Amino acid sequence: MTTARETVLGRVRDALALAPVGETSVPRGYRTGRTLPDEERLALFTDRLVDYKAQVHPCTADRTAEVIAEVLRDRGAERVGVPPGLDTGWLAAYDGEVQEDSADIPAPRLDALDGVVTASAAGCAETGTIFLDGSPDQGRRALSLVPDLHVCVVDLSAVEVGVPEAVARLVPERPTTLISGPSATSDIELERVEGVHGPRTLAVVIRTDV
Predict the structure, then answer these.
(1) Are 52 and 180 in contact, with CB atoms under 8 Å apart?
(2) Distance CA 188, CA 202 (A)
(3) Are 148 and 21 within 8 A, CB to CB?
(4) How far apart are CA 189 and CA 182, in angstroms?
(5) CA atoms of 152 and 24, how far apart (whole Å)
(6) Dihedral over Cα of 86, 87, 93, 99: its sign
(7) pTM of this structure
(8) Predicted local confidence at residue 210, as pLDDT
């Protein structure tokens, strides 16, 4: 009598024996190169973000600090965390306490923050997805997951139409976080519950003239 483990391992060995030797080229026939005018790309990206229940705040680059301060003020955020490489000018109009994040700050201290402000690496208009790659202006994953409010700044110039175009902007070796709206799940009695696995509120500031 063979055990289930022996059966599974035997099937794996048989499959490996039939596998081709050496590297195998897998064709990737993704549709790429799609573009849209800025106005249409912004409209599509905004529509998808709103559909995911994110708050969207388009603005010109010179109003970035003003809009961020308005968002934080409207949410009553008195203490916010920022990654170490964030543009300090973005918080010039904010009059609350700013805490710069570091790897030695434990999660409970991040949970005490009212929100977090980060930049982003790229965006996908078709899916309403924002990509963070852990760069200095985006910070570690815990910083954008633990606080209840995430204010994410996205440059429209970094928003692509489709997923293949957006992924092409990323560096494969970097840790990538994909954000499509605030954290939500329907696993609990099939009712939508927000804030279970991440921020309850996502506010996206889209800079339209960078």
Answers:
(1) yes
(2) 21
(3) no
(4) 19
(5) 39
(6) positive
(7) 0.83
(8) 53
